[in-house]
């Protein structure tokens, strides 16, 4: 808006005709007054405020305003509405008022900076980030049920029919007398099919909603040690939390199951039958447990299931529900409680960071840690099967 400079001699209102209403100062003059008042309250300490006062302090020559500027004025926020090189109608917060208020309190800029540092330090313990976490999920319950149930059937179909058929065509012996090498290669073959089918199915059910919001299925390695959502920082915290959570769960179960009755096979029992001194076999198992399984399971249970559940329940509750289904998907009653506890840690870490890199790191570290421990015991000559059975 081109506003002429105010002339005190010409600013007097002219004679009002009979029956004519007083139009008042008008929107331009009102906005100019509000902006000048904001500059005065800010103490003219910021660079933009000083430049604006020099140009517009006595009426100004060119003032650019818009709806966003009027919203800032109504909110009593000291702003610089426009300036050299600024976009039209953009409100820029005036830090001069913040600094001046800090000086009035005796702390100055150091008080403001100290408060920011204190807020950042307290952010690591801010539980509201968990309770208030939400995702902008464009689909509803029908897509969730269709996608998750379809993946469940595909998961069972590949494990029961497709992978064994492919293994038979490759002459892999999967019987009890089969070699550990054949079983390890079958695991790699099965997981490759599972990964391709699972990721393809998730892409298929979410494709109609493309482009997806940026926070869905987000994977980023930026800012690893950020206190609020650093993926590496919270990954390390999650690893420690997983050890504590699974350990406490196992201890409580040992108190309940003191009779030592027969138990079903666990996830580690299947890995024990594949242990070998051949490095290629170990690398095959490591690839499955530390790379492929964390990628697939975190996309399914955290990236798709947990985020969609937050449409109807708080994020921590969604983390617990997804953890229960995560434990059940491993098809072992012996490890269900421990896997659920681990799933809770994975879910809460994802809720905190909204970055799939965090639960993938925890999941990969957990699986690879168990595998390395079993391999060391095996190479040391211990009866790993007997050790697991007595746990």
SSE arrangement:
Layout: H1 26-42, H2 47-56, H3 67-74, E1 79-80, E2 92-93, H4 95-104, H5 108-123, H6 128-131, H7 141-169, H8 180-206, H9 231-256, H10 267-272, H11 279-309, H12 315-328, H13 336-353, H14 357-379, H15 384-389
Antiparallel strand pairs: 1-2
Helix pairs in contact: 4-5, 7-8, 8-11, 9-13, 9-14, 11-12, 11-14, 12-13, 13-14
Q: Give the structural class.
A: mainly alpha
Which strand-content bin applies to the residues? under 5%
Round the mean pLDDT to the nearest integer and report it.
Answer: 78
Within the largest sheet, what's the order of strands?
1-2
Low-confidence stretches: 42-46, 56-122
N-to-C SSE series? HHHEEHHHHHHHHHHHH
How many extended strands?
A: 2
Helix tally?
Answer: 15
| Shape category | globular
Proportion of residues in helical segments: 55-70%
Please give the alpha-carbon distance between the first and last residues.
79 Å
Rg over CA atoms, rounded to whole Å, is: 32 Å
Largest sheet: 2 strands, antiparallel
Structure notes:
There is one protein chain. With about 400 residues, this protein is an all-alpha fold. It has helices at about 25-40, 45-55, 65-75, 95-105, 110-125, 130, 140-170, 180-205, 230-255, 265-270, 280-310, 315-330, 335-355, 355-380, 385-390, and strands spanning about 80, 90-95. A two-stranded antiparallel ribbon has the order 1-2. Helix 9 runs antiparallel to helix 13 and helix 12 (about 315-330) packs antiparallel against helix 13 (about 335-355). It is globular and about 50 Å long. The protein starts with about 25 loop residues before the first helix and ends with a helix.
């Amino acid at each position: 808006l081109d506003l002429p400079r105010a002339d005190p001699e010409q600013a007097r209102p002219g004679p009002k005709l009979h029956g004519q209403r007083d139009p008042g100062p008008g929107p331009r003059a009102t906005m100019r007054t509000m902006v000048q008042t904001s500059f005065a309250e800010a103490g003219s300490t910021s660079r933009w405020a000083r430049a604006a006062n020099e140009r517009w302090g006595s009426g100004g020559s060119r003032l650019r305003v818009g709806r966003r500027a009027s919203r800032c004025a109504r909110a009593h926020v000291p702003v610089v509405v426009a300036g050299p090189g600024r976009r039209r109608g953009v409100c820029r917060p005036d830090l001069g008022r913040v600094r001046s208020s800090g000086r009035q309190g005796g702390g100055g800029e150091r008080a403001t900076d100290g408060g920011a540092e204190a807020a950042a330090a307290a952010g690591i313990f801010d539980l509201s980030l968990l309770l208030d976490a939400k995702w902008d999920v464009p689909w509803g319950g029908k897509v969730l049920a269709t996608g998750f149930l379809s993946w469940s059937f595909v998961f069972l179909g590949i494990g029961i029919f497709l992978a064994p058929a492919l293994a038979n065509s490759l002459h892999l012996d999967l019987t009890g007398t089969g070699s550990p090498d054949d079983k390890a290669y079958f695991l790699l073959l099965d997981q490759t099919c599972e990964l391709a089918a699972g990721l393809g199915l998730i892409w298929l059910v979410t494709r109609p909603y493309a482009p997806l919001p940026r926070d869905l299925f987000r994977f980023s390695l930026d800012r690893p040690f950020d206190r609020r959502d650093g993926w590496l920082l919270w990954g390390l915290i999650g690893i420690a939390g997983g050890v504590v959570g699974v350990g406490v769960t196992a201890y409580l179960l040992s108190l309940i199951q003191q009779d030592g009755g027969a138990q079903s096979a666990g996830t580690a029992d299947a890995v024990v039958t594949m242990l070998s001194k051949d490095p290629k076999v170990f690398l095959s198992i490591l690839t499955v447990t530390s790379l492929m399984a964390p990628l697939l399971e975190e996309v399914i249970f955290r990236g798709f299931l947990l985020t969609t559940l937050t449409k109807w329940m708080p994020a921590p509750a969604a983390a617990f529900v997804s953890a229960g289904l995560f434990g059940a998907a491993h098809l072992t009653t012996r490890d269900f409680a421990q896997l659920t506890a681990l799933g809770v840690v994975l879910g809460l870490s994802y809720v905190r960071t909204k970055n799939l890199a965090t639960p993938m790191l925890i999941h990969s570290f957990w699986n690879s840690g168990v595998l390395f421990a079993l391999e060391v015991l095996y190479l040391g000559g211990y009866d790993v099967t007997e050790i697991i059975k007595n746990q």
